[in-house]
Amino acid sequence: MGSLESGNSTRIENSVCRRFGHIRVSRIVFLLCFLLLLLPFFTHYYLSKVEIGNQNGDASRIRFKLESLEDLGALKASDLRLRIQEMERIKGSVSAELRDLEAKRQGLQQEISSLASRIEELKLELARQKSELERVKLSVVQAQVAQREAEQRNAPQLNLPGRLFPSEPPTHLNALPPESVSQVSHVHCHQHNCFDYSRCSITSGMPVYVYNEAQGELSTFLHTALQQTLSFNPHITKDPKIACLFFVPIGHEADLTKLSQLPYWGGDGRNHVLFHLSRERLQPSEALVTSELTGRAIIIQSAFAQTSFRPGFDVVMFPALGPPGGDVWQDCAPMVPARRDLLITFQGELWTPGGPGEALKWALEQLQQMAAGTTSDRFQLEFSCQPATEREDLWGDWSLCGIEASRQTLLRQSTFALILAPANATLTTTATLQARLWEALRDGAIPVLLGGDTLQLPYSEVIVWRRAVLILPLSRASELHFLLRSVSDADILAFRRQGKFIWQTYGASLQSILDTSLATIRDRIGIPPPAVEDAPSPSVFNSTFTPLKTEALVADAEPEESLGPLEPPHASPAYRRNYTVFLTQGFEMWNDWGDPFHLYPQLPFDPLLPSDAKFLGSGVGFRPIGKGSGGAGKEFCESLGGNSPREQFTIVMLTYEREQVLMNSLSRLHGLPYLNKVVVVWNSPRAPLEDLRWPEIGVPVHIVKAPRNSLNNRFLPYDEIETEAVLSVDDDAHLRHDEIMFGFRVWREHRDRVVGFPGRFHAWDLNHGGWLYNSNYSCELSMVLTGAAFVHKHYLYLYSNWLPQAIRDKVDQYMNCEDLAMNFLVSHITKKPPVKVTSRWTFRCPGCPVSLSEDDTHFQERHKCINFFSQVFGYTPLLNTQYRADSILFKTRIPHDKQKCFKFI
């Protein structure tokens, strides 16, 4: 029994010891105390079970057991204290290790987080690199295709040769006697035998040297105006060594014998231009510059005698009756209504020895009978001036009656203005005749030149005057009334419009006269005009700053609809200036309205091609110059019908302090086919935030820093625009990819027009008069807003360089109407309405900040803009249309009440 008890105690003891290592110290202490209290009870229990016999027989052994148990309790208490101390030490060590492990764990977690972010960045970089690799592969394929096309065309790309300039001014021709010089230059002088082409390389740009001192007396006005005007001409140079032409201003009472004393006269005046101005006193024929004393110099003036005029060499110009330069639209008469109160008018008096000839006398009698006849038409024909003006120097010519103001009042009441040819048959043209023509064109009275079939009109080698002037022989005087009445209202407006264009372009100001005179010679010798410069597009970021990038929000794809391939940026084929255009195409690539594709030499189109020339195919024949030469790309006619290979478009987006709206709009462009580049015009005064994240949309996004906050910045021809097609978009416009692609396809079929989404129209106010702007939904439209519209880049040149400054100033004044101005411009040029595409009735994004169009004064300003623009143009060129282009597969549902309003394709 004792052994059994000892074994049980040992097992209990071992079991307790094993569990001590897994319990806390406090519990061990509590258990130990409990055992010490419980031990006497266990001892008493076991002793009470011992048999009485054994108690008497083995007392010594019982005492030994009791002593052993007492020693064991004492021993266990000591061991427990030591173990408790050991456990406390272990606890401290474990706590320290746990703290170290926790610190290591946190460090590892931070490292894992950084590695995870690095992995995401590498994934994005890998995706970008893959995308870039795909674009590079496509670029290589396209380059190979372009190379094959070039080889098939057998037209290698040639760089312009270096400019060739003479090494010195023309030297005196001592070997040629004076009588030979006079004999060569008099009457028989032509461009081929009197002009030195060796000084005018085709790449030289035709530099012109101007003599500081005029020959003869110039009025103060002409002298000052001429100096100012010459400073704006791009051909002027101060180096006589490289000059192609030498410009000599000629005033009244000039001593032509002193021309030979000019330092660069060269003995015969070759390549000299004698510029004889007429203003205060329209000089008689006796005071004209004649070719007897001018050698091989080109004469430019307003009057010539038949014996001294050299066709194809000398130039007839308008008299300088206008201002030095600037906008002249205020001086023009309105072009409507077509018919005015008086059918035809004339005021003048003929001074000629012996009276008029038989033919002229008969013609005057027929005109008087026409005026005295029974008809509802009103005439005012006065063949004598009251009071009479007797000037012997006007013998053979018709004098002007009254003052300019009275003549202007009469002409603005006249549908036609009669101009009689001089009675002196030896006169090719006179300054008074040019003054009559100048005033008639300005005031909208269609000139009727009777007996002018043998006369020379200004710049007749580059202007076909039959588009603006009725030219009749004297024998038609009896049929004049019938002929005038047979002219329809549409033809009257066409004549008037063409005449206004000729007046504004070629004779309204001294600057236009000078530019046209020099450009006439430049066109004659076959030197292309200087190209216009693209507008610079400086980045809003400095050169060292790299904007942050983020992934774009990819819209849900529509797998069943293919919008086109995603290609790398591909610029439109550059139009390299064709130096044989004067020989091959001549004037046949221009539109028949004479519109401003040739206004100033500094524009990318020739300022002298005639206004009646035919265009090829599209309705407008531009001659833009490609990138590197300043211009917009190939001609319209070469890419009609969407046949231009690999054509893309550029999005121009104007923004002002709406960063998040802009970011959202850019994100929606991700994956847009045929997109070449996005040009963001940053109109805000402050730069973008450095932490602003720009979405990666797969094409370059160029942020242009605008010099000032102006809506005209939307239509600057930025050099970053390398495509012909430009999609002008507001930063809050929300267009789907399929809508944009369909609009682009429609534009390729109507490249000369504005093609876009939001349509508007104008209407006449019957109650108060004037035009009203209307944005209500209608079956007709006359404008497409450029908040979402395609235009050709060439119109950006015209808007920024040709459109009257008054219109751009009005846009800045109202901070409004730039879209109306573009519609006016394109409709004026093409005589066609814009094209609306798709059936969306709104394209604004929900939740965007309030825009300028939400202002209460927005519509009032647009009413005023339409009326003001109509005054500047002289009429309202906007045309109504019910045509709209829509795709058969387009998904937008059309309201039933709108479906009948449109024609579909």
From TrEMBL:
BP term (GO), one: heparan sulfate proteoglycan biosynthetic process
EC code: 2.4.1.223
Reactions that this protein is recorded to catalyse: 3-O-(beta-D-GlcA-(1->3)-beta-D-Gal-(1->3)-beta-D-Gal-(1->4)-beta-D-Xyl)-L-seryl-[protein] + UDP-N-acetyl-alpha-D-glucosamine = 3-O-(alpha-D-GlcNAc-(1->4)-beta-D-GlcA-(1->3)-beta-D-Gal-(1->3)-beta-D-Gal-(1->4)-beta-D-Xyl)-L-seryl-[protein] + UDP + H(+)
Pfam families: Exostosin_GT47, Glyco_transf_64
Keywords (A to Z) from UniProt: Coiled coil, Disulfide bond, Endoplasmic reticulum, Glycoprotein, Glycosyltransferase, Golgi apparatus, Manganese, Membrane, Metal-binding, Signal-anchor, Transferase, Transmembrane, Transmembrane helix
Entry keyword annotation includes Endoplasmic reticulum: yes
Membrane topology listed for this record: Single-pass type II membrane protein
Origin superkingdom: Eukaryota
Catalytic class of the enzyme: transferase
InterPro entries associated with the record: Exostosin, Exostosin_GT47, GT64_dom, Nucleotide-diphossugar_trans
Domain Glycosyl transferase stretches: 649-890
Protein known as: glucuronosyl-galactosyl-proteoglycan 4-alpha-N-acetylglucosaminyltransferase
